[in-house]
Amino acid sequence: MTRENKQRIALAVSVVAFVLIGLVLTKPDMPDLPPYLSSSADRDGVKGLYTLLKERDAPVKEWKRAWNGLPAAEHHTLVSIQPYGIGPEEIEEIERWVGRGNHLLLFDSAPEQWERFPLTELDRSLHSVVPIMDANRPSGHRLSGEVASIYRLEEADGMEPLLLDESGVIAGRIPIGEGSVTLFLVPEWTRNDSILKYSHFELIWPYLLADSDAIWFDEYYHGIREQPGLLAVYPNWLLAVLLQLAIGALLWLWLKAVRFGPAYTPRAWTVRRGDETLIAAAGWYERRKLAREALRHQANYVRSLLGRRFGVRADANDNQVMAAARLHMNKEDADRLEQVLQSWQNAEQGASYTVKQFVKDSRRADHIIETLERE
User: Fold this and answer.
1) Are residues 161 and 169 in contact, defined by beta-carbon separation less than 8 angstroms?
2) pTM tops 0.70
């Protein structure tokens, strides 16, 4: 094997190794999302249920703020699935919100902090598929589900049993004011990997389709939080006062004609100044009888434009200038340029050069300048 072949093989092996190592190091991992998240398509997420509600045109949205910021409205439903970090203050806040005519659907397998729902703890967790009785369906309707919670709800006054298994009540509703709180001890039924198993979907779907103006899926107590804007910190009355003060300040500035911004030079002064400078320069050339010098300045400017537009060198002769011009300009403009070049040559070779002839040649060159500047 030749030395050249060995180098090629070594290069190929290096490239393959580099690509493989890069794929291993940069391979994106799936984000580790919290369970029971409405935006999670993972096995323990509830995106399937959330998406189905959207497809059925239900007014479903995510809620990423604390419960004390829930809309002060009626006929709203908050769906909270296996929340964590809820304290007594949050429970009091949500009960006040429910009492105004809203509803809470709580899916929690161990709701010890909810004192309104007395619990009974079983000796062991069945964690098996058992028959489920729905209090709102005929007794002959066969339903089943897998219940993992070790708790059951006690049948107390004011609580309406909704779902029962062979060990007790696994879902119940308690009215609070104009609204209600419905507790399900089976949050796992809402997960993507189990909602279609057995009768899970059939058992919980009717309660999610309750007549509500908005259905909020709580994400705040899953760690997905959205901080309110700066203005949300201040009370509405203070914001109204500040807005009125700002409008009043603007009106006062307008009344006093106070202006903020740069000071501009009046256009009339600059136009006048420019005209005076040109007149003074022209008068100086005229008094000194420097018509040829003025013509040379104009010729140099035209040649600079030709160089910038067509790449003509500054020291090019007239034949080279015309060869480039006929490639880039139309016949009429090229003929005018040829006349201008001839007039410059005549001015240099003549014994004298009058101001009248300079004006005539200068006006002829102005057309060429306008043409080159326009291109």
Assistant:
1) yes
2) no
